Amino acid sequence: MVASQSGNTYLPFVDLVKLEQVDERTYRSIAPPFSPGGDIGGGRAYGGHVYMQAAWAACHTVAPGFLLHHISGNFLLGGLTSVPFIYKVHIIRDGRSYATRIVNVTQARGKGICFTCTCSFKVEETSPLDAQEKMDVEEKYKSVVAGKRPESFEECPGMDVPWYWKRRQETGENDAFPGLEARKADMGPYSDEKHPLDRRQLILYRTLGDMPNDPNLHLCAHLYASDRNSLYIVANHFEVGDIFTQMGSLVHTVVFHTGPKKLLFGPSSHQSAWLDDQRGRWFMKEDSSDRVADGRGLFHSKVWAPDGTHVLSILQDGMIRVTKKPTATPEEADAMRRREQSWKPRAKV
Fold first, then answer.
1. 8 Å CB contact between 66 and 123
2. Which of 108, 136, 231, 259 has the most CB atoms around it within 10 Å of its CB?
3. Torsion sign, CA atoms 68, 34, 318, 313
4. Domains of the chain
5. One Pfam family this chain carries (predicted)?
6. How are beta strands 113-123 and 66-75 bridged, if at all?
7. CA–CA separation, 222 vs 180, rounded Å?
8. Going by C-beta distance under 8 Å and a sequence separation of 6 or more, which residues neighbour residue 45?
C-alpha cells in the first residue's frame, strides 16, 4: 500500500514504466499511480498510466521484432492512487506479421476489472505507398510559435481547467507530472477568434530521463503522452471547462503509422526543424474536437515528429457532462444555449 498522491513526482519514464512479474502473464506496477492536480485533483489515477502500462505488459509476451501499432482501451472504473495496478495478459493470436493481446487490469480486490484493452503488434515493413497531409508547424501556427522554442511555453497544468489556472497564477504551484516533460502552447492568437470546432491546441512533449534502446518502450511513452489533458482540451474549446459536472475517459485509441525510427525519443543530431533539440527532441500533439453530444466529447489528435511526419493518431470518446442529471433542466438548457450563441462563426472553407 502506498500513500495517496505519492506518485506526483518528476520521475524518469524508465522508472515510471517498470513492472514486476507475478506469474507467467501477470504483472504488477511498481511506481505508484498518481492524480493530475495532486491532492485537489479528485483522487483518480491518471488514465495514461494504466493505458501505457497495460501495453507494456503485453510487450513482455510477444516475440522480438513485434512492435505496437494499435491499442484500444476501455476505462471501466476510476483508478485508485493508493493501490498498484495488476495486469493480466491474454494471448489471442501469434501470426507471422501480426500478434494480438488482450490485457485486463484490476486494483482493489473484489472490485472487478477497472480497465481492459486490445493491443495489436506487427513486424516492421516498408511500403512504396506513403501519403500524408503536409505539416509546417512554423508556417501553420506562426502566430503562436514565431520567435519561440518549445521550452519557451509553460509546463502543462496538472489540471487544464480555469479554476486550476487561477490557482497556479496566484500560488505559482503546478503539480509534478512523472515521466514526461510537456509544454502547452498559448493558442490565443490562433484560436480565440475561431469557432470551437476550428480551434486547436498544441502540446509539445518529450520523456524525462534517458531512454534505453527498446522501440516498444518508446512507443509506450507516446501512449502515455496521448492522454495528457485530452478531455480538458475538449471542454475548454467548447467553453465548458468551468461548468462541467463530470468528466472521464471511456474509450481511448492510438494508432501508430510509421516504423520505430520516426518515433524514438532522444537528442536530435541536427537543428533543422523547430522541434529538434540536442537535449531531447520534441513531439507535437495537435489536438481538436469535432463533436460533443449525449454527455460525451470526442477528442482527436495528430502527433507530429520534428521532420513533419505524422507518426500517430489519437481518438478518445469521453464523458463530459454539463448537467447535474441525465435530463437537462430548462435553466441548464438555457444557459448552454447562451454559451453557444457567444461562439464565433465557423471558418469559411
1. yes
2. 231
3. negative
4. 13-124+146-342 (2.40.160.210)
5. 4HBT_3
6. antiparallel
7. 10
8. 33, 34, 35, 78, 79, 80, 81
Rounded Cα–Cα distance for residues 335 and 192 (Å)? 21
Beta bridge partners of 100: 93, 120
Which three cell numbers mark 160? 487544464
Tell me the pLDDT tens digit for each residue of 179-220.
999 999 999 999 999 999 999 999 999 999 999 999 999 999
In the 8-state DSSP scheme, what is residue 155?
A: B
Total Cβ atoms within 10 A of residue 349: 3
Beta bridge partners of 106: 86, 113
Is residue 55 within 8 Å of 220, Cβ to Cβ? Answer: yes
B/e letters for 152-162, b = 16+ CB within 10 Å, e = fewer, are ebeebbbbbbe
Residue range 286-321, pLDDT digits in tens:
999 999 999 999 999 999 999 999 999 999 999 999
Q: Which three cell numbers stand for residue 330?
A: 430548462
- Per-residue cell: 142: 506562426
Q: Please report the DSSP string for 61-95 in residue order.
A: TS-TTEEEEEEEEEE-SPPPSSS--EEEEEEEEE-
Do 92 and 103 meet the contact criterion of CB atoms below 8 Å apart? no
Burial of residue 187, with CB atoms counted within 10 A of its CB: 0-12 exposed, 13-18 middle, 19 or more buried: buried
130 vs 111: CA distance, rounded Å: 46
Cell 492568437, located at residue: 189
The conformation of residue 124, written as its DSSP 8-state character, comes to -
Which of 265, 175, 266, 279 lies closest to 229, judged by CA?
175
Of all helices (H) and strands (E), which one includes residue 336? helix 330-342
Closest CA to 58 of 106, 14, 104, 15: 104
Dihedrals φ, ψ of 162, to 5°? -55, -45
Query: Considering only CA atoms, which of 216, 178, 155, 211 is closest in space to residue 81?
Result: 178
